[in-house]
Write a structure and sequence with these properties.
Elements: H1 3-39, H2 43-67, H3 73-93, H4 97-125, H5 130-155, H6 159-181, H7 204-235, H8 240-260, H9 262-268, H10 270-290, H11 296-306, H12 309-316, H13 326-337, H14 339-355, H15 357-360, H16 363-379, H17 383-388
Length: 389
């Protein structure tokens, strides 16, 4: 098989996998009430399902990111797919709450690391247009997420449906695994400019700002996902349907933007794209989240400019580290930054209970502003992309 066709087959395997991963990531919310009814769970026990997912993310990103620097990318992908499939098999063939928690940690942890690994490999497959293909890959993930929410949300009627859904995802995982058997997955080529000092430990002067950038970003984006509807209904008095509509517009914009705006990432470069779209996102986000019910539509449409931020941020990590450190550095950065998700979701709920939405909602625009300010201060004059200009 020629290199060109091998790259195409590898990317096709990634697309199949991303559709499955996107669907998998949305299942917790879709089936939460079914879990609660089937296992007779308290609200606290239901919340442990999300906690188990976060723990899985932390462990896989921290440990798996470093292991991926010691083994071939193809082997790492295959092992992660098998772990993900094993979790799906637990979901499909068992009916036990403890096993469900274990499966959630394995499924979401392996899913997150697969997502990150594919993001880092894709630029090696398409060196002439890495930004387009990375963002297109995340577009296919959004198809899986949005499609599953639309289809499964209206048909999920019991625990048996949950098991059947995971059987379908198990088949998608098997297809992706089989396709990768015939692919030559590229490895990072060592950069001659990498110094011996760089090849030692990570440069924490880069790690720490990146952790802050990702941490603030996670709070801003996931704050919309987890709290926009609740804020609209309980904080602004909007009807449930209207608040939900704004959320669907936000994530619909993210899906469309990853398809339509991705060519601009290659034209501008990763860092300039992040500065430009991050700045636009910040302005829209601030106006939309601070103006009450009148400006909610502005907040919703900010999803369009938000779309390229996360995929391009992950891709940009390679601009700051030697080739052999990229995977490990990405795992370290994302695992530490994901603590922001845990702390935010615990703290924000308590803040709302104490101060109400009127004051608490300011956390989200502050996080968005902190994201773009930290990124601009950190990225200016740094990275291989800047040095070439």
């Amino acid at each position: 098989m020629t290199k060109k066709w091998s790259s195409r087959l590898t990317f096709f395997a990634f697309v199949v996998l991303m559709v499955g991963l996107g669907s998998n990531d949305s299942l917790r919310g879709i089936f939460s009430t079914i879990f609660q009814e089937h296992f007779s769970l308290t609200t606290t026990q239901l919340g442990l399902i999300v906690t188990a997912s976060y723990i899985g993310n932390l462990v896989f990103l921290l440990v798996g990111g470093n292991l991926s620097t010691r083994f071939s990318k193809k082997r790492v992908l295959q092992v992660l797919i098998l772990i993900w499939m094993a979790a799906l098999a637990l979901f499909a063939f068992t009916s036990n709450y403890t096993v469900l928690l274990i499966g959630m940690a394995l499924a979401l942890g392996s899913s997150t690391l697969l997502n990150t690994t594919m993001n880092l490999i894709t630029p090696l497959l398409f060196a002439t247009a890495p930004g387009f293909f990375v963002n297109f890959l995340f577009f296919t993930q959004e198809i899986g997420t949005s499609g599953s929410q639309y289809i499964l949300g209206s048909h999920a009627d019991g625990f048996a449906f949950w098991q059947h859904t995971n059987l379908v995802l198990l088949i998608l995982g098997a297809v992706a695994f089989m396709l990768l058997l015939f692919c030559n997955v590229p490895e990072e080529a060592a950069d001659p400019a990498d110094t011996p000092a760089q090849k030692g430990g990570y440069d924490w002067r880069i790690i720490v700002p990146y952790v802050l950038v990702f941490g603030f970003y996670f709070i801003a984006e996931h704050g919309v996902m987890n709290w926009m509807v609740a804020y609209g209904v309980d904080g602004l008095g909007l009807p449930q349907a209207s608040a939900a509509k704004y959320l669907s517009v936000f994530f619909g914009g993210m899906m469309i933007g990853r398809l339509c705006l991705s060519p601009l990432v290659d034209k501008l470069g990763a860092l300039k794209s992040l500065a430009a779209f991050g700045g636009v996102s910040c302005v829209l986000y601030l106006i939309g989240s601070l103006g009450g019910a009148v400006t909610m539509p502005v907040w919703a449409i900010s999803g369009l400019s938000f779309s390229i931020l996360y995929p391009t941020l992950v891709m940009s990590i390679r601009l700051y580290f030697p080739a052999q450190q990229v995977s490990g550095a990405a795992g370290t950065i994302l695992s530490i930054a994901s603590l922001a998700d845990i702390l935010f979701n615990v703290g924000f709920g308590r803040l709302v209970d104490t101060l109400g939405y009127g004051v608490s909602i300011y956390v989200l625009p502050l996080a968005m502003a902190a994201f773009i300010i930290t990124f601009l201060a950190f990225s200016r004059g740094h990275g291989k992309e800047q040095q070439k200009n």
